[in-house]
Predict the 3D structure of the following.
Amino acid sequence: MEGGNVIDEHGPAGAPTLARAPLPPRAEYVVIGAGVMGLSIAYHLARRGVTDVVVIDRGYLAEGASGRNGGGIRQQWSTELNIRLMQQSVELCRRFAVELGVNVWFRQGGYLFLARTAAEVQRLERNIALQNRCGVATRMLDAGAAGDIVPELSLDGVVAAAYNPTDGILFPWPFLWGYARQAAALGVQLHTHTPVVRIDAGTTGYRVHTPRGEVVARRLICAAGAWTPEVARMIDVEVPTWPIRHEICSSEPLKPFLKPMVSELSSGLYCSQSMRGEIVGGVTVPGHGSTYSMASTLEFVATYARRLVRLMPRLGDVKILRQWAGPYDCSPDGNPILGAPPEHPDFYVACGFVGHGFMMAPVIGKLYADWLTGDAPHEIFQRSTLARFRDGAGAGDKEDFNIG
Ligand SMILES: Cc1cc2nc3c(=O)[nH]c(=O)nc-3n(C[C@H](O)[C@H](O)[C@H](O)COP(=O)(O)OP(=O)(O)OC[C@H]3O[C@@H](n4cnc5c(N)ncnc54)[C@H](O)[C@@H]3O)c2cc1C
């Protein structure tokens, strides 16, 4: 393709394949990381007319957390800011297939959170009141009503549930392909298998070094997910995030029976049924510590199987076909880190989204591009500064619903 553009339209099964175009000498923006966050920002920059953008990833598209997640999209949160952001994100997801020309299998089957204790019920009640004030139609159900939505549930010990019918799930990979294809069509260059190994900060921008050459960026956007601290350290910026391995698996396909994503507060178990019929789910297995390891463990699959079968005994005979893991990108207060530190005003980061960065990426990418192209910054950027960890100011409301 002309001008070093990189999408080869004849990739298999809808996945873009990327040609080995040389890196350009300069770019207005270099985005490090072609996960959902980097691609969303690049796409929205291009939509706003900024097309001198180069996206660089050390691996393939969907190599990081963005290709390894459960695709859950929900508006059930505990802070007004997150609820309102996710209302916008859901709208963007609803329009995604038409706007970006790719089927992402977005299905709004709802999210059903199950409570087993009085404390969990109180927590859900508080959240529901706030969600309703924001216009999200979550409602409290007794155990019987939860069973009407998912008849296969064993309701033993379940005391109540929170249900919002407009939450949903999607298939993450085509979501990335859609952003990549449309960003490239607008002029953005994508370079996969191109690790950033060094960055020199100079007066005219950042010289980004890779084994495939160098590019000087006037502005850098670091969207390297859980690897952000490694990249930021290349220009001596300390980002206080850390990776936690999160495991997940999928079963053989079953006839459709499970409409909502089901999540059990007490264990952190969650599961949904994909459009292909597989049961995709995970559970919190404490004690892995901080690691970049993406190995799969027997402990996970045994814990998951036990909890899942307790919740839905009918699944006892179902076979697990695939098991994998990815990094949760954790920050000290569970909130993201966005914007540029004062000593590097042209080095922007977007990280710390724990286990919900996929659902946030559509709205964060759009708001980031709006801000970088001249709009006033959305409140999320004021609350999510890196500086809050330096001056102890805190991020404001602490989100306590980082589950599933
Ligand atoms: C098992 C699991 C389940 C999850 N479930 C959900 C869910 O249901 N809903 C939800 O919203 N979120 C979920 N998440 C979280 C979500 O996947 C992430 O928050 C999101 O994908 C982060 O996107 P990202 O673009 O910031 O990071 P990533 O997708 O990790 O992308 C970062 C990219 O940076 C690249 N990179 C790193 N270092 C360099 C370098 N030096 N040079 C060049 N490139 C580099 C990596 O190769 C990678 O492609 C889940 C995560 C996991 C692991």
Remarks:
- The longest helix spans residues 80-100.
- Residues 108-165+243-329 form a domain with the D-Amino Acid Oxidase; Chain A, domain 2 fold (CATH 3.30.9.10).
- The chain has a mean pLDDT of 93.
- The first strand starts at residue 7 and ends at 8.
